[in-house]
């Protein structure tokens, strides 16, 4: 079992013991189970890209799509092989899927290209009015498709994601994902789940079966109208292998007049892995940084500095030519990133308004506040200033928080310690006042100790 785990970074032995058409629990909210949808929903092609995927997970994905989608709504399944190096994914795969009751096509990338260009190929070869993308280790549950297509029928500029349930990488147990989290991102441009804020609960008048407007998508599982996908510029084909494309398309959808939702009545499982099983030709960091730079340069305006200042070194990565993506933004007259932060993601980790972004230095001792790469609920540290950004970057925000990425400095006891906690936006223990006069005075008075001056860079 341990040896086989390494092949795909999940318990392949367990996967091989489970039927392709296994029964799954119906994890939907009660209110979802008897919703009615129009008869004339648009039909979808399902595009699944893979590189060296396991036979059992790939075919369980295909089987679950076919078994749990109304036949009238499923145009075809397109499998895009991103230059896999496994014999069983060649002719045996083609022969196996030929027997299925829905057309399943296998197309091949000529060379390893990454999931972005592989999806572009799959999309261009498919024919359904809607394109639904899935990872190659998913399982669709009962009723997953209708609520997605219904939203697109209502408004073709709505891009929709299911709730992503968790298939354990260890046991392949199926566990319901939460309808109370939505997509965000941190300063490092990592996609993260955050709690659905109160304003979004209020907008839906507390009805959890209504779709959640989400600032970003996880990336792997979504449906989009084919013509709308074209109109807003598909994907950035200059991105390689993996990463960044999910934030890029999320920003683009919102900034260019679309809507991005998590449809809480639709559940699809996904095997989340702790490590990547495949190679990144050219280096993992290099590729992800390049992709992220492309999206930061095109979509984030001056807010890209949060990314650059916390990830020292990233500005040295060559991101290629972005002129066609910038002119796309021009052509579509997309709104600025500040609009997105204000209207779509006011609870963002990147503050829309802030006084300063940089280090917090004791000018006497030349020591800086440093998050020491510690995690939530730990103390903030102090370390020699290195001027390299990274762990020494803080922002003093318009809400008077001092935050480092998605954590806020927090003092609950008199005389400290100063902890790093989740930002709660409620001031209280996370409110920091800055008085330049007192600061100057104290700096002159004390030559050591804990007094900190805020310096803007
Ligand atoms: C998440 C997304 C994934 C993608 C990625 C960011 C979910 C559930 N998954 O990562 O879809 O948006 O974030 O880029 O939201 N693949 C290729 N060629 C490659 C590398 C990967 O075809 O060079 C395939 C791979 O076999 C899989 C899919 O792309 O079917 C996504 O890759 P992953 O499963 O390793 O990504 P994941 O789930 O960690
Ligand atoms: Mn995946």
Automatic annotation (TrEMBL):
<dbReference type="InterPro" id="IPR045885">
    <property type="entry name" value="GalNAc-T"/>
</dbReference>
<comment type="similarity">
    <text>Belongs to the glycosyltransferase 2 family. GalNAc-T subfamily.</text>
</comment>
<dbReference type="InterPro" id="IPR035992">
    <property type="entry name" value="Ricin_B-like_lectins"/>
</dbReference>
<dbReference type="Pfam" id="PF00535">
    <property type="entry name" value="Glycos_transf_2"/>
</dbReference>
<keyword id="KW-1015">Disulfide bond</keyword>
<keyword id="KW-0464">Manganese</keyword>
<dbReference type="InterPro" id="IPR029044">
    <property type="entry name" value="Nucleotide-diphossugar_trans"/>
</dbReference>
<keyword id="KW-0812">Transmembrane</keyword>
<keyword id="KW-0479">Metal-binding</keyword>
<dbReference type="GO" id="GO:0005576">
    <property type="term" value="C:extracellular region"/>
</dbReference>
<dbReference type="InterPro" id="IPR000772">
    <property type="entry name" value="Ricin_B_lectin"/>
</dbReference>
<keyword id="KW-0808">Transferase</keyword>
<feature type="domain" description="Ricin B lectin">
    <location>
        <begin position="354"/>
        <end position="456"/>
    </location>
</feature>
<protein>
    <recommendedName>
        <fullName>Polypeptide N-acetylgalactosaminyltransferase</fullName>
        <ecNumber>2.4.1.-</ecNumber>
    </recommendedName>
</protein>
<keyword id="KW-0472">Membrane</keyword>
<dbReference type="GO" id="GO:0006493">
    <property type="term" value="P:protein O-linked glycosylation"/>
</dbReference>
<keyword id="KW-0325">Glycoprotein</keyword>
<comment type="pathway">
    <text>Protein modification; protein glycosylation.</text>
</comment>
<keyword id="KW-0333">Golgi apparatus</keyword>
<comment type="function">
    <text>Catalyzes the initial reaction in O-linked oligosaccharide biosynthesis, the transfer of an N-acetyl-D-galactosamine residue to a serine or threonine residue on the protein receptor. Has a broad spectrum of substrates such as apomucin-, MUC5AC-, MUC1- and MUC2-derived peptides.</text>
</comment>
<dbReference type="GO" id="GO:0030246">
    <property type="term" value="F:carbohydrate binding"/>
</dbReference>
<dbReference type="Pfam" id="PF00652">
    <property type="entry name" value="Ricin_B_lectin"/>
</dbReference>
<dbReference type="GO" id="GO:0032580">
    <property type="term" value="C:Golgi cisterna membrane"/>
</dbReference>
<dbReference type="GO" id="GO:0046872">
    <property type="term" value="F:metal ion binding"/>
</dbReference>
<keyword id="KW-0735">Signal-anchor</keyword>
<dbReference type="GO" id="GO:0004653">
    <property type="term" value="F:polypeptide N-acetylgalactosaminyltransferase activity"/>
</dbReference>
<keyword id="KW-0328">Glycosyltransferase</keyword>
<keyword id="KW-1133">Transmembrane helix</keyword>
<dbReference type="InterPro" id="IPR001173">
    <property type="entry name" value="Glyco_trans_2-like"/>
</dbReference>
<dbReference type="GO" id="GO:0000139">
    <property type="term" value="C:Golgi membrane"/>
</dbReference>
<keyword id="KW-0964">Secreted</keyword>
<keyword id="KW-0430">Lectin</keyword>
């Amino acid at each position: 079992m341990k040896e086989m785990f390494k092949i795909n970074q999940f318990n392949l032995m367990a996967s091989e013991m489970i039927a392709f058409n296994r029964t799954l629990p119906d994890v939907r909210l009660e209110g979802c189970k008897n919703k009615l949808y129009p008869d004339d929903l648009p039909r979808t092609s399902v595009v699944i890209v893979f590189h060296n995927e396991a036979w059992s997970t790939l075919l369980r994905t295909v089987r679950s799509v076919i078994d749990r989608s109304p036949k009238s709504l499923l145009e075809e399944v397109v499998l895009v092989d991103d230059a896999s190096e496994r014999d069983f994914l060649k002719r045996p795969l083609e022969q196996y899927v030929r027997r299925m009751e829905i057309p399943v096509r296998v197309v091949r990338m000529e060379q390893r290209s990454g999931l972005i260009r592989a999806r572009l190929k799959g999309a261009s070869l498919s024919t359904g009015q809607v394109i639904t993308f899935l990872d190659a280790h998913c399982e669709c549950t009962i009723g997953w498709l209708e609520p997605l297509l219904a939203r697109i029928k209502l408004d073709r500029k709505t891009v929709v994601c299911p709730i992503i349930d968790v298939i354990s990488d260890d046991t392949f147990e199926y566990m319901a994902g939460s309808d109370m989290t939505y997509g965000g991102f941190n300063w490092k441009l990592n996609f993260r789940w955050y709690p659905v804020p109160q304003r979004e609960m209020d907008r839906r008048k507390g009805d959890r079966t209504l779709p959640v407007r989400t600032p970003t998508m996880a990336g792997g599982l979504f449906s989009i109208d084919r013509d709308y996908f074209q109109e807003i510029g598909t994907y950035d084909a200059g991105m390689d292998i993996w990463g960044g494309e999910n934030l890029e398309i999320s920003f683009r959808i919102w900034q260019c007049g679309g809507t991005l939702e998590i449809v809480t009545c639709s559940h699809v499982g996904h095997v989340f892995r702790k490590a990547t099983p495949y190679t990144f030709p050219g280096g993992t960091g290099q590729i992800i940084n390049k992709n992220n730079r492309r999206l930061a340069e095109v979509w984030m305006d001056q807010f890209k500095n949060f990314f650059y200042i916390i990830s020292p070194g990233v500005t040295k990565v060559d991101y290629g030519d972005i002129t066609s993506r910038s002119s796309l933004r021009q052509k579509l007259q997309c709104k600025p990133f500040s609009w997105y932060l204000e209207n779509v993601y006011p609870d963002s980790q990147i503050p829309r308004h802030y006084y300063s972004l940089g280090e917090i230095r004791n000018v006497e001792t030349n020591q800086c506040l440093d998050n020491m790469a510690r995690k939530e609920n730990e103390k903030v540290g102090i370390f020699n200033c290195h001027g390299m950004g990274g762990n020494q970057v803080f922002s003093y925000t318009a809400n008077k928080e001092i935050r480092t990425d998605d954590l806020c400095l927090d003092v609950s006891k008199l005389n400290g310690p100063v902890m790093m906690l989740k930002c709660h936006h409620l001031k209280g223990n996370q409110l920091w006042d800055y008085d330049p006069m007192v600061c100057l005075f104290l700096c002159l008075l004390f030559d050591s100790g804990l007094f900190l001056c805020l310096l803007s860079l």
